Request: fold
Amino acid sequence: MTPGGRLSAAMEILDAVIAGEPAERVLTRWARASRFAGSKDRAAIRDIVYDVLRRRRSCLWSSGAGQESGRALVTGLLVQTAPQDLTLYDGAGHAPAPLGAEEEAGQRATLDEARVAVRCDFPDFLEPELRRSLDERLEQVMTALRDRAPVDLRVNRLRATPDQAAQALRAEGIETEPLADAPDALRVVAGQRGVAGSRAYRDGMVELQDAASQQVAAAVRAEKGMRVLDLCAGGGGKTLALAAHMGGQGTLAAYDANPARMRDLPARAERAGVRVTIADDGLLARMQGAFDRVLVDAPCSGTGAWRRNPDQKWRLTQADLAELVALQARILDRALTLVRPEGRILYATCSLLACENEDQPRAFLDRHDHALKGAERRLDPGPGGDGFYFCELLP
Ligand SMILES: C[S@@+](CC[C@H](N)C(=O)[O-])C[C@H]1O[C@@H](n2cnc3c(N)ncnc32)[C@H](O)[C@@H]1O
Reply:
């Protein structure tokens, strides 16, 4: 495909997203229906779509258009990031039609005049809560979420040291660098697209995991021989990190209210060389008060990881947020029934919002006056990884 053809494809996909379809679904459908597109075309189109979604509001502003359309959003992205590429709108082949005089006149070269929610790309209803949560860091943090996330790996210490893993990856054309705050992390600096097909990945030497997620798993302080529960395991990224911290020894259980989300976990655990018990409600009922550590990686707004899931940013509503906050409190209360009296709960979210973060442990301690708060940390999204919050709770 030509560069102009890729722009047109991204516009078509974005039109469907604007009409309400999830981006991932539209991208898959488009790829199936467009056999002429090679893997490089598909990757490039996906990048354009996701770059736009991270900056959906400001792209519309930069385009100067009155109404959202795929064309307006892609134009806005180019105005912001690659104005020279607007010459690709020449109508040749599958390229977008040339810009009209009105379209050209409407373009805005800077975001200086835009309101903060437009300039920093977030929904209006979140502004008061973001201000309360981030205070003077609001613009810096929200700006960081307008760019792509880095690709980080977690080295599985049961299979290799970080040096050995870096060497194995280099032999396959994947260059990495160590990261200061996460000792098992490698940041991929070249060859990102080769990771999932690499031998190091297939042999369980490395897993794809954001560096801040790795810090959360380390904060659980799971040790060899312990009984550990990952109560919101999802795909099991943190479960596998916990297994590595436990040196593969002890009991590690993974639970999720939606068990289908854990579907791939047994195969991932096998690849990593660890054993994970997939828990159901019956097993949890038999293990009340039995766990040394319970990780509650709670369902949340995902605001701290919006770089990776920019579609979520425009779907979240005030009502969703209220439901999530209530659900988080219920899950924390359940965690309390599962942890040993001398054990520890680690409450974590990939949220930036105080209502899902600091407010939750505070409300938990009000409900359970015997419980105590331990270490608490907020990780802002940026070069170090996604945005996370975590807090230890002692029963
Ligand atoms: C933030 S995600 C977990 C991500 C996962 N820990 C990881 O590292 O990949 C939150 C998970 O909580 C699950 N969940 C939602 N309600 C729950 C509940 N009441 N009890 C347990 N898990 C729940 C969701 O299905 C979702 O998989």
Remarks:
- The longest helix spans residues 318-338.
